């Protein structure tokens, strides 16, 4: 669990390149490179732009850490729900 948290934080910090927020290009690269296997339409710049606008709660045109964590939380919740609906081999 600790390694996963460090990875989530590290990916944001690395992608932000020392800044407090991800600009449009940094956000798109992060989503495409790190989340492409669990998210649809990450290759579509318009889809990623819409996602960024949805996350940008303070409307500054950037994605801050808390906004990024909203995305991570949503993805984790969606993955948890899909796993809970999948029958396990033990049943």
UniProtKB/TrEMBL annotation:
Domain EF-hand: 43-78
Domain of life: Eukaryota
Keyword Kinase: no
An example Gene Ontology molecular-function term: calcium ion binding
GO cellular component: extracellular space; perinuclear region of cytoplasm
Keyword field contains Metal-binding: yes
Entry keyword set: Calcium, Metal-binding
Designated name of the protein: EF-hand domain-containing protein
Native organism: Ameiurus melas
């Amino acid at each position: 669990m600790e390694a996963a948290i460090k990875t989530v934080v590290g990916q944001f910090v690395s992608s932000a390149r020392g800044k407090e927020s991800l600009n449009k290009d940094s956000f798109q690269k992060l989503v495409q490179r790190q989340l492409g296997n669990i998210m649809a339409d990450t290759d579509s710049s318009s889809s990623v732009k819409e996602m960024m606008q949805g996350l940008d709660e303070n409307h500054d045109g950037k994605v801050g850490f808390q906004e990024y964590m909203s995305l991570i939380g949503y993805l984790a919740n969606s993955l948890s729900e899909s796993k809970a609906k999948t029958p396990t081999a033990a049943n």
